[in-house]
Amino acid sequence: MNESQQWSIDQTVRSAERQWRRQHVRPADLARLSRDLRDDLTAAADEGVAAADLVGPDVRGFARRLADEAGVERVPYAYDRLLLTALPGLAFAYALLYGYIAGPTAPPSDEPSLAAVIATYAVLAALVLATSLVTVWFRLRHLPAMPHTVLAMALLLPLAGALATPVTVAFAATVNYSNALPVLAIECALMGAALAGAIVLARRWALRGWASIPAPHLSATQA
């Protein structure tokens, strides 16, 4: 097999691996599919059949068919469902915060003390955490590894909030703690980005052990 054939095989396998990662194929199963595909392409090249002739022009479609035929399981990250379930608590908490600042019970002074500002944002972080955890647990408890996900969120969300709060407070200070809706939207985006990152990391952390276990039916097939 010459260098051109080896390069073609490498490119095909890498393209297939990218597709399998997009499909969230378990790492152990991805490695097995990749190894089998490389062996098949190498054997075909030894018989004079090019990788493009065996796979066809649509490598991604070929990879999808291989995964479906092998019956591999996808890692159920469910990021979209998790974020859409957890993050509405952020909007709820900010609605409460907006009502606190703009409502009749707001402090009379134009310049709130630093302690009051920090306390307000700490309450906000607690509301976000409690609302998100309770909502995720009750609505998504049927998903794999969800108890571990909620536990990881309970650990990572406060850390994300602690890191994002000084940034948000600093931004609020630059606009004199304005309660204008565009300002609150930016504050919400800053906090939301940090919390979304923590949620995604928590889910990946919770599924690390689950994703590394080969699917039972694949193990039985190999045996």
How is the topology of this model organized?
Layout: H1 3-22, H2 27-46, H3 51-55, H4 59-70, H5 79-86, H6 88-102, H7 114-140, H8 146-174, H9 181-212, H10 216-222
Helix pairs in contact: 1-2, 1-4, 5-7, 5-9, 6-7, 6-9, 7-8, 8-9
The number of domains:
2
The biggest sheet, with number of strands, parallel, antiparallel or mixed sense and barrel status, is:
none
Query: What's the rounded overall pLDDT mean?
Result: 79
Low-confidence stretches: 101-108, 215-223
Number of β-strand runs:
0
End-to-end Cα distance, whole Å, is 32 Å
Rg of Cα set: 25 Å
Which sequence of SSEs, written as H and E, runs from N to C? HHHHHHHHHH
The computed structural class is mainly alpha
Please, how many helices?
10
Name the helicity range: over 70%
Tell me what portion of residues adopts beta-strand conformation. under 5%
Shape: elongated
Task: Write structural notes for this entry.
The chain is mostly helical and 223 residues long. The two termini are 32 Å apart. The chain contains ten helices and no strands. Helix 5 packs across helix 9 (181-212), helix 6 (88-102) packs antiparallel against helix 9 (181-212) and helix 8 packs antiparallel against helix 9 (181-212). 78% of the residues lie in helices and 0% in strands.
